[in-house]
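As the next step, I wrote out a protein sequence along with its fold in token form, included below for the reader:
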Amino acid sequence: MEKQKKYFTLTLTFSIFLFLLIFLIWFLFITKGSTEIIKKSRIKPVSSVIPNSKPLENPPINTRRDGSTIKLIFAGDTCLDVGARRNINKYGVDYPFHQVKDEVMKADFSFLNLETSVTERTTPYPKEYNYKSTFESLQGITNAGFDLVGLSNNHSMDYGLEGLIDTFENLKKASIPYIGAGRNSSEAYQAHTEIIKGKKIKFLSFSNVLPDFNWFVGENKTGLANGYDINLIVKTVQKEKETADHVFVYIHWGVERTERPLDKNRTWARQMIDAGASGVIGSHPHVLQGFEVYKGKPIAYSIGNFVFGGKTGLTAQTGLLQLNILPDDQIIFCFSPYIIENFTPMKVSEEKRQSMLNYLESISYGVDINKQTGFINSNYYVQK
């Protein structure tokens, strides 16, 4: 009996040992085989899969210094006369912009259309409406965060050639650069250039609405940039784009109090973008007009009045247009609604904001407007 027990124990021990040995041999074989299979099936680098392909010797480098978004803000027609002048006299130079300042200050660079002479001249140009503003009122523009003004419009020469020259001098004294006018053609058609976060960005301004063609600048004549000649505009954009990352065009055009742009305006906007413009922004109709996206570039046909009159109805609707240049150079844009009360752009209720954005979407071309953020998204890209 003891013998049988001993024999059984030896047999069991040997069986266990043999089983472990076989398992070990099997494990090593399978592992090695699997490794070989994995090695053989591993995805090869592209250069070894595609014949004659080579890694890029000079991969593209994003030249932006910090990789952040560039924020540009554009505001519409601004006149610091009439009711705005009364407000300034009563409340100070900052009053016309006191409700928009916080938003403007968040931008990297901001522009507005200065639709007035800045002069003390007393002889107006013979026309229906003439506006002039004081040198002191310019401080409000600077304090609000605006960096550049446009002069190519139908009020910059309301007090004649002398009044325009006074405007140049007063803006220079206030350290506010301007575009769209000059003592000769070279000055009037020269873009204002800014280097923002490593990108060279240029701004141009033209007027397609003037009371007299004598207001146009000449080779040796002071005046405003001609916005009636699309070929001239296109050539100017092409020239400036040669040495810029982005060129933006602000143009004074359209018909007053019309909700939609002229067909000519739509055609011209596309021609400017074809010439190299990264965006086209318009004003003059005294009302907001719709938006469009062409070849991925924003078009705002009219951003309306800004500091301009104690308006009502559609003429009281205004806002700030923000263009964001992303790190990959794509441009997205949004609109922030305000309402003009007592010659001043004022914040609106959420209900009014939604209403204005819904209205703008209804008069735009192929875009959806996010009612929460105001961002404008294209439904299609116009190719014609």
User: Anything to note?
Assistant: Residues 1-8, 26-65 have pLDDT under 50 and may be disordered.
